Amino acid sequence: MSSSELLSRQNLTGLLDSVDTFIFDCDGVIWKGDNLIQGVSQTLDFLRSKGKNLVFVTNNSFKSRAQYAQKFQFLGISVSPDEIFSSSFAAAMYLKLNNFPPQNKVYVIGGDGILEELRLAGFTAFGGPEDSNKTVDLKQNIFFEHDKSVGAVVVGIDPNINYYKLQYGTLCVRENPGCLFIATNRDAVGHMTAWQEWPGAGCMVAAMCGSTQKEPIVVGKPSTFMMAFLLTKFNVSVSKMCMVGDRLDTDILFGQNAGCKTLLVLSGCTTQSALQDPSNNIHPDYYTNKISDMLDLLDT
Amino acid sequence: MSSSELLSRQNLTGLLDSVDTFIFDCDGVIWKGDNLIQGVSQTLDFLRSKGKNLVFVTNNSFKSRAQYAQKFQFLGISVSPDEIFSSSFAAAMYLKLNNFPPQNKVYVIGGDGILEELRLAGFTAFGGPEDSNKTVDLKQNIFFEHDKSVGAVVVGIDPNINYYKLQYGTLCVRENPGCLFIATNRDAVGHMTAWQEWPGAGCMVAAMCGSTQKEPIVVGKPSTFMMAFLLTKFNVSVSKMCMVGDRLDTDILFGQNAGCKTLLVLSGCTTQSALQDPSNNIHPDYYTNKISDMLDLLDT
């Protein structure tokens, strides 16, 4: 069993020397809900001043890249949409790179961000927020119609999940030949509010697995799809990348699956005792409380 | 690989001679949605005239036994509530037989029938339909309160599934020490209407598995809990029981797990080609189109 090193002045100096691209998870690393984590802004400024590329990767598919850029701006951090990789965007890129026929439609269980990214990529998408208030009256003689031209159902976190959406998605996956079932991610829970975790995309995706008895294609972390896309875009070597995240089973596994260096921060959902529990078998290279520890360790 | 015999005059005569109790699944065997399947009434009359015990077992937890007795009556069949075993009742009996402390509460994701059976068994239950119109405003500073005295979450089919219920159930299972997670059943889909299948309890149960990352205790078919209860109640030998159902992975497996004879009917969700597909490894003793084939085969 390998173990993880607590981040120190010495190993941090080595890390900064060997890495040119930092990939940050957002929730639990940059922010919690709508609150910036302490020292984040100064830490990002410092890394930029050292010439590092910064990439922000989020499994939360609720927003599009443009909507995330607005969130960064609202929190006082300047980030370009090009530096942001959300699982909503990954779903659209998966379809694009796999030559999804543009005449086929995409049904969405999830937020507006998925619809926005799919439409930006040239696809016809529907569902999502439009279906949030739809109800089903289970009269015996009703027949629930669905669009036979739907060729993919994309499922992400959906706080407006309902039976209408589940039936719509289930009928497409079960009855439309070859219909893809794509999960933006499978996070069990997420910080939808500042003080609590709430059911994440893993809940809605599992619901669809339960009714369709099929397993989805996952495009977000820890799947390597997004990393392969990043590597092509930035044209860098994985050995010069470091994944920084707060979750062992998504962020750290994602980095390790790709061959990156990995840094766990304890500012999100993983505690030090969970990291060091004998049942845990995912070990980041380094761990620290929060990303601004970098500044404290270097006395900047 | 064993194979199944098509029901014939000869093997039916042998079956009737050797069996004194028939256990019927309801949906797809007795009715489809709110429509009685052809010849059911006469078949049940015939079996009663032969002195057979009849038991009706349903995985659909939406109703209580009393509500199912009303449904039978509405369809023109006289059945006593004592002959009915629903998974809603099974959930209540599971708690009772396992000495669930009555001062603890039960949170329900599912229909009114679960609440009714739990209350009849002396438990304090809440949730279900009461929470169907509750919404969550994910403001950053809200805190979602849950009752710390909830000691079990029971999940069944819920056409009014929503994020409020999922968060409530998830918090109880994740945060209340020792809180049980009970599934009435895990059927992927069911005939909620006459012409179509809709997401079943397997969908809501999977959603809870996705957010809690725990597996439930299942009390309905194919778990043997209900059968053990039936055997005690009727004091009969399993070798003299025949399970009649339309689903391989719940009904037939349930009968086989218990050691009963098994009869598959093709009037519900299983087709002859699914039965005979090489990938199927669940083989009932007998199969036929519908239960009234018994009458035709015997020329009654």
TrEMBL record, chains A, B:
Keywords: Hydrolase. It comes from Stylosanthes scabra. InterPro entries: HAD-like_sf, HAD-SF_hydro_IIA, HAD_sf, PGP_euk. It comes from the Eukaryota. Belongs to the HAD-like hydrolase superfamily. It is an enzyme of class 3 (hydrolase). Its EC number is 3.1.3.18. Pfam families: Hydrolase_6, Hydrolase_like. It catalyses: 2-phosphoglycolate + H2O = glycolate + phosphate. This is Phosphoglycolate phosphatase. The keyword Acetylation does not apply.
